Fold each of these.
Amino acid sequence: MQQPTYPNRAALDDALARLSKLPPLVTSWEVESLREQLAEAEAGKRFVLQGGDCAESFADCAPDTITNRLKVLLQMSLVLVHGLQGPVTRIGRFAGQYAKPRSADTETRNGVTLPAYRGDIVNAPDFTEAARVPDPERLLQAHALSAMTMNFTRGLIDGGFADLHHPEYWDLAWVKHSLLAADYQKRVDAIGDSLRFMETLAGGAIHEFSRVDFFTSHEALLLDYEAAHTRTVPRKSGWYNLSTHFPWIGMRTAALDGAHVEYCRGIRNPVGVKIGPSIDIDWLLGLCRALNPDNEAGKLVLIHRMGAAKITEHLPRLIEAVRGAGHKALWLCDPMHGNTQSTSTGIKTRKFDDILAEVNLAFDLHRTNGSRLGGVHLELTGEDVTECLGGARDLTEKDLERAYRSTVDPRLNYEQALELALEIVSRQRR
Ligand code: PEP
Ligand code: MN
């Protein structure tokens, strides 16, 4: 399901052959290290922050966009580390998040019908016949741009950008005049004090505070692309998808007898799967069995995306079923995709309050059902966009006209994203 129809099969095969010979984007060691961290999160010892664009665009592979996104994720994780009093695993929804599932195969505007835009890895968003033709050369471009994104991200992190001693590196221009500035600065100062205290006790700098891990993830949608990156590794058994640390299966392609589950059950990477309100118990338990056949900790991540209005009705029975069957899984809440709505003028948006309400309900429902919410999955950007309504600046429908840039789903802007982290810890403090 959800695969493009390429006009020229030979050109596709040629592109895939070239792709499968290129170096991987991640290594099996990193994949194993993420699995260990996810197992710790499952055991309640960590929290997972997964976030980034709904759809990366090729044009967004630019230094400012990458650093700003990294900054906001680092700021959020600092707030979460401090507020939840525990380590946070950061997983970017980037360096490969280029393919998008679509509800319809075609799009009609003013009486003209064209094939749907399926993400920059397939075709272009412009509403012209030529732009919408799937182009296999885009597979190679996606690989190259993912590699550049990762190279820059790794360079920044290894060079000290993520050093907890220097949170000022992550300041975005707005921090000074934000309504949230005081709250954020209080946490930065508190962490600085703790660091100095511990390093005094330890008699010197503690290396662990100078660098952080950053993992990548994307929806494993375009199976030709994923397969071209699926490799064996010397001295390790099994297959690894080396295009990303953490692939996930989208809600539209999670059928038990579908190709995406069939592909993902064969790889060693931890695998996520999106769970919506239409899931039933047999389907969910079937996914657990297929995607984590050896019932290993850190292997399966269930990402529920119910919507604030539906989560209370659906989540408890799912938690109960998974626990009852003895399946190991990490639970994440995606509070974005169940809360999408259209404005009166037909713009896709989400309300900050719905997003926050779903996250808080997820924490509470897991707790009252003897489970634990292990993290959040968010669509956000480090840019000053106006795509979601509400937040501290109370963005209105009128504001959406100012800076709506997403080609697919509305993202939290940097300030809304940080506010969400601050709100989460103010209610969920352990
Ligand atoms: C997404 O994560 O962008 C997405 C399409 O989500 P879902 O599969 O949950 O609808
Ligand atoms: Mn999305």
Note: The pocket of phosphoenolpyruvate (ligand 1) is lined by residues 54, 101, 219, 250-252, 274, 305, 337, 409 (CB under 6 Å).
Amino acid sequence: AALANQIAAGEVVVRPASCVKELIENSLDAGARAIQVHLREGGIAEIVVIDDGQGMDEQDAALAFRRHATSKVYEPRDLVRIRTLGFRGEALASIAAVARVRLTTRAVGAETAVRVAVDGGEMGPLEKVGAPVGTRIEVRDLFYNTPARLKYLRTVQTEQARSVEVVQQAALSRADVAFSCQTEHHVLFQTPGNGDVRAVLAALYGVGEAKQMLDVHAASNDYRVYGVIGRPTQARSSRGYAHLFVNGRPIRHPGIHQAVVQGYQNRLMVGKHPMYALYIEMDPSLVDVNVHPHKAEVRFSEEPDVTRLVSQAVATALDGTLL
Ligand code: ADP
Ligand code: MG
């Protein structure tokens, strides 16, 4: 089982950022209102995720690291229409197979918390400890027992940037949840969790970073597009300030990104790149999110319709304004 878990881990956990992503998704699935992420050495030495979600009782905590253990029950068709974030029941087992993990969790209504350590897939005893309601997961020494994988990691700086990007995307996808992200040296950002996307962008990039963030919204029968677009005061790469979500998931889509940039540049006639956070909502059957588990690329069945609506939405938002 240990080897099977290590192999499975290769699919789920390729770097600290993928670990951070899975842990945050679990916290969101648990209904957390506040999520803290701590990174040491870019997440290679340690990732800690603390949430105030519903927590796990003793039984759930004992099962959480088993492969295909999931408390989330699905109909087969849910696998093609994924709405919740976790659905495979393998993230924790995979992470615990390639790191030293400590879980401390207290369920709503429970008198105490439980703590359990899993080291390279081997689970230690369950202890009762004092802790607030919610879950704290500490992941240390990622890939300590799989040197081949450790070798694939980039520099601390690169791994940290990728991990932080995951937290940023999560914070933007859930402006109603308060996120904080810190390293061993600084607090990188803290979002208020008040539902305001502008407030999240201000927390990520600095309050004065965008001039005049404009509301974007448009809808057709099948799609709804909303969000904000603005002009960054500092130059960044084209992707630097671009955030796109489909049904709540952060995605990359060069065609849609291009449509946004084009709409913005047509209106302003400058070579600048916009800062934006755009959210597209659609029937999940019109989008394939399973193109690749990590790249977060999607395929739309009616791509031209989506692109056209996004272009229109951006054009309308910018119409008559002088950014
Ligand atoms: P999945 O999310 O696909 O169910 P995971 O391996 O990510 O599988 O998690 C296994 C189980 O552990 C979850 O189904 C859930 O019951 C529990 N769990 C994991 N993280 C948390 C958390 N932060 N809060 C509450 N329960 C959690
Ligand atoms: Mg999960």
Note: The mean pLDDT is 88.
